[in-house]
Amino acid sequence: MRTRLICLFVVPVAIALAQDKATEKPPAPTDPLSAFNKTAYGYAKMAILRSAEKMPEENYSFKPTDSVRSFGEILGHVADAQYMFCSVALAEKNPAPKIEQTKTSKAELIAALKDAFAYCDKAYDSMTDAAGSQTVNLFGTPYVPKTSVLGVNLIHTMEHYGNLTTYLRIKNIVPPTSEQAPPPAPKK
After folding, report:
1. Phi (first) and psi of residue 107, to 5 degrees
2. Is residue 164 within 8 Å of 48, Cβ to Cβ?
3. Which domains does the chain have, with CATH numbers?
4. Could you read off the pLDDT of 118-157 as tens digits, one per residue?
């Protein structure tokens, strides 16, 4: 009888404690604005690189109409933009490699994108909310917070991911962000 009473008390308490633990929020990051920007940037970087990898090289010159950039030109443009935006956030001179005008092959463009993202990684990795509140001049607009410069970079990158998604779909290729997640590994 005593064992049953203990079980009647202990089991519900253990379940309640486990549920409380499961619904606890993780601790807030020290720099929530910068942390979110960095997470979103990682997603954008993955989407662009996976798109570049998925498109066959023979389609890098593809453009749905003559008035728009080709798939490869978009990738070069995105790479150039990484240097432009992140050099502003880092308060450095833009290396301006002119990738869009000089690289055309799949291998060259993927390598250039990886280099451009590595450059931007420095900006996102080193940014804190305090440093992000420092202002810079962006496109002639003074007093733009550095965090906002990185946010505009994200908007620009995802804008062009939207272009790449359309090009991939026209070529019957599923864009990276539309792929189904692989099934979970079987439990052993």
Report:
1. -60, -45
2. yes
3. 29-58+67-175 (1.20.120.450)
4. 999 999 999 999 999 999 999 999 999 999 999 999 999 9
